[in-house]
User: What shape does this take?
Amino acid sequence: MIIGSHVSFSKEELLGSAKEAVEYGANTFMIYTGAPQNTIRKEISSDLTRKAHEYMKNNGIDIQNVIAHAPYIVNLANKENLDKWHFGIDFITNECHRCETLGIKYLVLHPGSAVNHTKEEALNNIKEALKIILEDNSKTTILLETMALKGTEVGSLEDLKFLLDLNSERLGVCLDTCHLNDAGYNLSNYDELISIIKETIGLERVHCIHLNDSKNTCGSHKDRHENLGYGTIGYDNILKIATKEEFKSIPKILETPYIINTKTQKKEYPPYKFEIEGLKNKEFVENLASKVSDYFNK
Ligand code: FE
Ligand code: FE
Ligand code: ZN
Assistant: This one.
């Protein structure tokens, strides 16, 4: 299983990220190359990148499976403010180059929200933006993420199918199990899910899976992640996606919520070490919160 989680990129850049992933027993990871909520980006250190690659090699992490995620404030669907839309295009173009500098092959991108546009306009705006981005000479593959369809979000499998007909080698899909559930896809029927994927985007386009349970019911359009087995999707349904043949060679990334430190009442403790161990053993982690807080409190 190629399994990891979202990790930080702030300490020692990629080297720090890789070290954090190894602490969790992961063999891959996902980063934002700067703060997820803004577009401020500092220059990448070639020295730390080189050290990170060496560290990964020695610790069983194949850089080919490492994922970057674009900041979620970029909205290529909204053309109301043209300067902003062009800024988004330039930013993602640069982000592709930052990925190349880091040796990362995949960049996950939220397709966007229609805001005051119709859904059709929104999809056309995204397609137009992607077309410009893909004209650039970068080799980074952009993975469009399936979205929960919260508010005016686009990003159903059908929406992604429309965007994928740009027919670029550099375009793929990242499935997010929480988002699929919240968007209305029933994850308790694995075979049906596979056939919907085949009919829409095609299995070969899937290059990353965000493994999350959901706090809300199927079709709720909410987008609130839950720890594996503690939400409405349930452990067995998530385990199938994590272990079945169709997705065997695809990196799986956890974006599940941190655990509350009962002393400070803040979500401070990453659950990933325990959730990854559970997945490897194909076993639901009972009493996750107390296991995690005991581990960090000792
Ligand atoms: Fe995402
Ligand atoms: Fe996600
Ligand atoms: Zn989400």
About this structure: The domain at 3-296 is CATH 3.20.20.150 (TIM Barrel). The chain has one domain: 3-296. The chain is about 40% helix and 15% strand. Residues 176, 178-179, 223, 225 surround zinc ion (ligand 3) (CB under 6 Å).
